[in-house]
Model the fold of this input.
Amino acid sequence: DVQLVESGGGLVKPGGSLRLSCSASGFTFNNAWMSWVRQAPGWGLEWVGRIKSESDGGTTDYAAPVKDRFTISRDDSKNTLFLQMNSLKTEDTAVYYCTTDGGYNGSPWGFQHWGQGTLVAVSS
Amino acid sequence: QTVVTQEPSLTVSPGGTVTLTCASSTGAVTSAYCPAWFQQKPGQAPRALIYDTSNTHSWTPARFSGSLLGGKAALTLSGVQPEDEAEYHCLLYYGAARVFGGGTKLTVL
Done:
């Protein structure tokens, strides 16, 4: 079975940094594109960004609100996805989910599997 | 910035039919946006229901269907069950970017 387990969330002050991890199992992680999605309390889902597989270039794309502050990376040797968050703002407070992202738009693999999420709270 | 709009809330009676829609600020939604739909219940992660406009996953109940309707993506529930009460999110693909709608809270009453 596919499993995605996020960790690293917590309380951080505005301007601070945090690094989230997502441990993956049950599928060939190094072939998978992966995304981070967040959900502020009481709000809808917001796509944060995506990383392609290394075989597809390993490139990243980000949503405008986090571009230049957040960085997605991966360690295929450890089946782990990361989200480095810098210059955090109060509006970054949310549950952060890692999820599979299809290798092409409309893929059945896209957003098919989700972790349980990890809460990031940005407050002074 | 691209905005994807859903009805904030809808109410349906058990056994009834309801259609949720998903609109794009850039214009008509077409199959090129590969609309996807997700169900989310309180305290749970989202669950994928529909991908690429109208394709269902193996676990998607047959009463759920996806389509394009009047320039929007649509999710139709036919023969609604009490357990369908949930938040429903749509997703559109804009090239490398993905944009979720604000979600529709569906009440079964």
Q: What stands out?
A: Chain A has no helices and ten strands. The interface with chain B takes residues 35, 37, 43-47, 50, 61, 63-64, 97, 101, 105-108, 110-112, 114-117 of chain A (CB under 8 Å).
